[in-house]
UniProtKB/TrEMBL annotation:
InterPro entries: Acyl_CoA_acyltransferase, GNAT_dom
Taxonomy of the source species: Bacteria, Bacillati, Actinomycetota, Actinomycetes, Actinopolysporales
Record GO terms (molecular function): acyltransferase activity, transferring groups other than amino-acyl groups
Signal peptide segment: none
Domain N-acetyltransferase: 18-167
UniProt keywords, alphabetically: Transferase
Gene3D superfamilies linked to this entry: 3.40.630.30
Organism the protein comes from: Actinopolyspora saharensis
Protein name in the entry: Acetyltransferase (GNAT) family protein
């Protein structure tokens, strides 16, 4: 287990696309092996990650013994999950923590960083979501001060729980 946190969260650069995509694929497999339907295997391609990095959406944290230890997308709207809501907010998608850093507080560290990004941009709300059946992640988000504010159904595929907290 890791006993120190990164010093900062940085905007991802094109040379980090492979590491971000590799971490995503590893976590997709890890979730699948445990019967957690958070992310379908192969849902996000390396090309999609590259385009998201080019748009400045990915933030990364590194640790000396691991390299890329955590990553997340920071967005300013999320119409696919939140609809046409124009309320100014910061949104996090795809929060990932390397399993070797589990339990070290890196998830909280990343969320705190996203909250700071939102505050610096002058927004008052922080929003995220997770698949409704992922009770562990839902409990984690609730423990970080988020409250469940809704749900969105995607037909027979899945449903997500929408979370929000004030900044």
């Amino acid at each position: 287990m890791v006993d120190t946190l990164p010093r900062r969260v940085e905007i991802a650069t094109p040379d980090q696309v492979t590491s971000i995509h590799r971490l995503r694929r590893h976590l997709e497999e890890w979730l699948h092996a445990r019967g957690i339907r958070q992310w379908p295997r192969g849902e996000v391609s390396g090309e999609e990650v590259a385009a998201q990095v080019d748009r400045g959406e990915w933030r990364c944290a590194h640790l000396p013994d691991i390299g890329l230890a955590a990553a997340m997308r920071v967005l300013w709207s999320d119409p696919d999950f939140w609809g046409a809501d124009a309320t100014p907010a910061v949104y996090v998608h795809g929060l990932m923590v390397d399993c070797r850093a589990a339990g070290a507080g890196l998830g909280k560290f990343m969320l705190d960083s996203a909250a700071e990004i939102g505050r610096a941009a002058g927004v008052e709300l922080f929003r995220l979501d997770c698949v409704e059946s992922n009770h562990v992640l839902r409990a984690f988000y609730s423990g970080q001060g988020f409250r469940e504010v809704g749900r969105r159904d995607f037909g027979n595929l899945f449903s997500v729980t929408l979370f929000e907290r004030a900044l």
